[in-house]
Amino acid sequence: MRCIIICNQKGGVGKTTTVANLGACLAERGREVLVVDADPQANLSLHFGVDLARGEPSLYTVMRGEDDPSDVVRQSAVEGLRILPTGVDLAGLGVELSGERGRLFALRGALEKLQQRHDYVLIDAPPSLGLLTLNAMCAAREVFIPMQTQFFALQGLGKLLRTVRKVRSAVNKRLRITGVLACMHDSRTCLAQETLDEIKKHFGRRVFKSVIRKNVRLAEAPGFGLPITEYDPECHGAQDYRALTREVIAMESAEQRRVEQSAPDAVGMLGPPRRDRRAG
What we know:
- By secondary structure, the protein is of the alpha/beta class.
- The protein has a single domain, classed as Rossmann fold.
- Helix content is 40%, strand content 16%.
- The protein has 13 helices and eight strands.
- Strands 3-4-2-5-1-6-7-8 form an eight-stranded mixed sheet, with helices on both faces.
- Strand 7, helix 9 (190-203) and strand 8 form a beta-alpha-beta unit.
- The longest helix has 15 residues, at 236-250.
- The protein is globular.
């Protein structure tokens, strides 16, 4: 199982859009995918038409140990794509767990119970570096960083990179930044291209070749509770996320080898490649 946190302490950079649509495109290619809404704003849950009231089973009750994660996971409108939703209750979890031993591993413990069912887990982290984001980093093996190609794109990233290094050295030696994604890119402006060049200079080969262009259909899709593959499968946004998905899938062999070398007991967890559903 590849467990990936999509993370940036800035808001509005395309984290939720990327989790929803990358997840849908991976499912379209035959992978079994779980998307996890770890942001108290619950935008990912709403993207898939899940609007939880206070007290309903959610990621909050799972991390508190009140519900089994398999009972909370819901099937989305896309075959092979499931969601572990959240609601506003999650906002208070950091305070509630602050004095608990093992508070950094509540999410990891929940996801370990689901690993046999999924090829990919994509975690939508909140725009902060608080307890929820740290939980996601402790659970994941990989970090994807979405970034807008705007003037302040690189501002504040130093703190995120330091946090990843600290988590890796202290509690999760498996954690790696394996992908940086340019989002909401407007190729018509010189500033966007110059910013993209700066991102590539800073992160090198970790920058995905695929670029997510500005596309109004991507903004409209959540209002209908659908990923872009279901809302408008031929638009630029769908094309861009399918291109990204091909890159992510191409990384599978390298990630499998890294997992085998770093954790021999994890051999085989990724399982064999699934048949592409579009191939019939």
